Amino acid sequence: MAASDTLDDVKSKGILWGFGMLTLVVLIVLLILGAWWGSEPGQFNILEEAHKRSEESKVETGHGGHSSAPAEEANKPAEELDISEMPIGYVYTNSLAHIAEVLLHKSGGYITNDVAPPGVFLDNISNWEYGALVMLRDATTALRNHFARDQSQSAEDPDLAIAEPYFYYEHNSWALPSTEAEYQKGIESLHKYMSRLQKYGGPIKKAQFYSRADNLWQYTEVVIKRLGGLSTRLTANSAGGNYGPGLSDIEKLAADEKGTPITKVSWLEIDDIFYEARGASWALLHILRAIKHDFADILLDKRAMRTVDIMIKAMENALTPILSPMILDGSGYGLFANYSLTMANYISRANAAALDLRDIMNRG
């Protein structure tokens, strides 16, 4: 009996040991995947991506010549690329399409609608995706309602009328239909609009893009509200909230009547708002670079190019690599940094430049 009990004990310990090792391996794999999937995508060159798409479009339609030409062109530096054949609006539209493509095809793919580990636990990159998505939606709406319309009474572009609603599909649907499937349809519709900017004739109607001051002014109004909202939430995200040491009860009441949040955000939400702002900054940075290219004439004429450069620089600073493994929430002059206040500072600077841009575009 003693020998059989010992044998059973050894077997049970072996099973537990094997189960424990399997669990450890699974956890290590999930941690590695989580770190990889949770990393933020890098920046991309808007001109290189637009040129690459243009060459691919030529090959698809049979006008690209030898198939190795696109690959050879893609290896050239951005300043050596021939972008003379790309019409106004092509770079802007392709930037929107590529932002959506990055959301869908970055490491780990689109994370927000994941229902299994490790994606279901990666709330930071999910908030990053949502911040970028909001900026993508605003820019696509501006393209449909303003940039591609001559007047308020003119007909909207049919491809953009299809593309925009797809990006407004719920951002966390994992099936029937999935978020990725709907966003991919939006990307394809943007590509069709881009093709009509370049090639038209016969039954294919030419697509329009109007790089006017009033169009840019209307989009800037939306950007101002988005940046202002992010800045306010990040400030409330800080260690002191809006309860400054010198804030009286009357000032608190006045702030509350204006609808300004005066309570500190829960510490569980600090990194959520921060990463949402990071995603919004990433998307807006590329949109602003595209605007700088496609609206160059009106920006130079209005002497507003420097204002756009200030916005771009602020967004670049907002995307400075994070050195800490967690989002710090120190006091203003304490030992540890306050990441939320730092991000709010960059976004507020971009917002101030956006206010200047709106005023410049609104002048006669």
What does this structure look like?
By secondary structure, the protein is mainly α. It has one domain (about 1-360). The chain contains 13 helices and no strands. Helix 4 packs antiparallel against helix 5 and helix 8 (about 215-235) packs antiparallel against helix 13 (about 340-360). The protein is globular, with a radius of gyration of 25 Å.
Summarize the model shown:
The protein is mainly alpha-helical. It contains 13 helices and no strands.
Index terms:
globular, mainly alpha, 63% helix, 13 helices, 364 residues
Calculate the mean pLDDT score and round it: 85
Low-confidence segments:
64-71, 242-248
Distance between the termini: 100 Å
Give the count of structural domains.
1
Percent range for helical residues?
Answer: 55-70%
In total, the number of strands is 0
How many whole angstroms does the radius of gyration measure? 25 Å
Strand-residue proportion: under 5%
SSE-based structural type: mainly alpha
Counting DSSP H or I runs of 4 or more residues, the number of helices is 13
Please, what is the oligomeric state? single chain
Instruction: Give me the strand/helix succession.
Output: HHHHHHHHHHHHH
The outline comes out as globular
Question: Largest beta sheet, briefly?
Answer: none
